[in-house]
């Protein structure tokens, strides 16, 4: 009789442990969902960065066009003062173009890093999810077995 009660207590402890593990698994699933949300946010950031990149490219093209126009004016113009002014403007434009180019390179680097992070997350996420679901199934099965054992012990106690 005492042994049966002891077994019953042990079963209850095991059930409690399994329930705690199930809670932990649910928390891990929540963490995975948050990871997925982070992935979506990274994708959104990537799209925004690509849009910014496109805008910068358009701006660079416009600046190059302006530079070409200034060179054309320079060829047509013979006045010395205007020539100096135009040359100064051309230097400023070239500096601006250089700055834009550096910004574009930085943006490309950020985009490449984000893509690498997203690929890593996409590779790890399904594996983690599958592992967690298998563990969840196993724990639920163990809980069911323990409940059946508890039922048998209670029946033995009654009889």
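Sequence proposed for the structure above (159 residues):
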């Amino acid at each position: 009789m005492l042994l049966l009660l002891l077994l019953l207590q042990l079963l209850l402890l095991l059930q409690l442990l399994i329930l705690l593990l199930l809670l932990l698994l649910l928390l891990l699933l929540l963490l995975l969902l948050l990871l997925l949300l982070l992935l979506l946010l990274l994708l959104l950031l990537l799209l925004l960065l690509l849009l910014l990149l496109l805008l910068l490219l358009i701006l660079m093209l416009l600046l190059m066009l302006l530079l070409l126009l200034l060179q054309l004016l320079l060829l047509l113009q013979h006045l010395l003062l205007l020539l100096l002014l135009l040359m100064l403007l051309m230097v400023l434009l070239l500096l601006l173009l250089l700055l834009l180019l550096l910004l574009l390179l930085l943006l490309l680097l950020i985009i490449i890093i984000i893509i690498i992070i997203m690929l890593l997350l996409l590779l790890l996420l399904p594996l983690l999810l599958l592992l967690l679901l298998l563990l969840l199934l196993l724990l639920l099965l163990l809980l069911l077995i323990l409940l059946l054992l508890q039922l048998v012990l209670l029946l033995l106690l009654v009889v």
